[in-house]
Amino acid sequence: MTAQSHDEVASGGYPDAGPEVAQVGDGVSHDKHVPVVNIANILTVIRIGLVPVFLVTLFVDGGHTTFWRIVATIVFAVAAITDRIDGQLARKYGLVTDFGKLADPIADKALIGAALVGLSVLGDLSWWVTAIIAVRELGITLMRIAVLRHGVIPAGRGGKLKTLVQSLAIGLYLLPLPESWATASAIAMGLAVFLTVVTGLDYVIQAIRLRAGVHPHEPGR
Hints:
Largest sheet: 2 strands, antiparallel
Strand content: under 5%
Strand order of the largest sheet: 1-2
Radius of gyration: 18 Å
Number of domains: 1
Number of strands: 2
Number of helices: 6
CATH class: Mainly Alpha
Structural class: mainly alpha
CATH topology: Four Helix Bundle (Hemerythrin (Met), subunit A)
């Protein structure tokens, strides 16, 4: 989740692709014959599968054992890194599918949501922070599904920045850092909340435009 995902391919991103490349309603270029089962989508599914693994490691021994907090952080980081890998593979091999455009952000939200709820349950993060981010993410996901018949809303660069900052902030809270890091962690999470709200409003505007027949043309998922 630290970089562009596998459906973040701009219109016209494959100048040498020839006639096999088609334009879909969201303005994203992709191969008409790209199978849904491809390495980029498999990595997305793996990311979803790592969510319960992450939760188990987070709550082992009461959730505050240094060793298991480090393990949980590693699992979280591996899951987040798959977002960068599948993005690179998709851009290189043209593995863009509607499944990926919908499933990839859902995978990100499942991982981020699990981490936030877990940290709040353990008392390490205020519930109001988790509530704001969770309501936004769930609302945007439901909104995306609701407008599917009009087209797929791709995530813009702001959405990816939001996910990156969220991941970094969560990483700071997951790691068993000394108290001197508390201020830095709080600032990072505050920035994450701000970006979460701002980008959420942007997606609402995109949904309204999409229902009005104006298709987004920016790269993203």
